């Protein structure tokens, strides 16, 4: 499989990482299915990227809807070669004892449930054909804790471990699995969503430093998918130069 004859499904493709990933594959000549909840944003992707892009209005949290959507794809888009599980979000940055339980549930349903539903729906076809690549978007938050990261970090730890377990389950099938784990990325809706559309607070996250961009992440995703069929990139951890590892927290009286 080359990227020029591949069919790629990207979830969360309305903006941010997803839009950049869809753009990178479409530019390389792939057929791209762009999936997201916001139909108007998907229409923008189709207008931008052309006729080899199929919009799929979909909430990845809805298991039945995901199954139906994958089962009823048009013939030319039905053989999915690359699944990019990108849909995800963070909500809030407060300590666990002040957290909103509904926000916790939304992160679990989207970041974990969405990955499960989309993977389960596409994997049988990949195994039957003896080729395919599942690329999950994790986060360094799944490895390194930080105050307020509680459930968001836990969901990304799930994505990381699920990716590793998929590799074990799929041993001998020819299917590849990769987890991309970005650090701070600016210019997306991530922090705006986390802080409930408080743009000022979101902008402060990236003040005075140069974060990664969505295009940086898209390039990492594309690179892993472009490797020869016998090469599996297990994990890519990517951070901006301006970000590294903090010291342990110490509470002093």
How far apart are the first and last residues' alpha carbons, in Å? 60 Å
Task: Classify the secondary structure makeup into a structural class.
Answer: alpha/beta
- What is the assembly state of the chains in this entry? single chain
Could you tell me the strand content as a percent range?
15-25%
CATH architecture: 3-Layer(aba) Sandwich
CATH-assigned homologous superfamily: NAD(P)-binding Rossmann-like Domain
What does it look like?
With 253 residues, the protein is of the alpha/beta class. The protein has one domain (3-238): 3-Layer(aba) Sandwich (Rossmann fold), CATH 3.40.50.720. It is built from 8 helices and 7 strands, in the order E-H-E-H-E-H-E-H-E-H-E-H-H-H-E.
Which keywords apply here?
single chain; 253 residues; alpha/beta; Rossmann fold; seven-stranded parallel β-sheet; 8 helices; 7 strands; 41% helix; globular
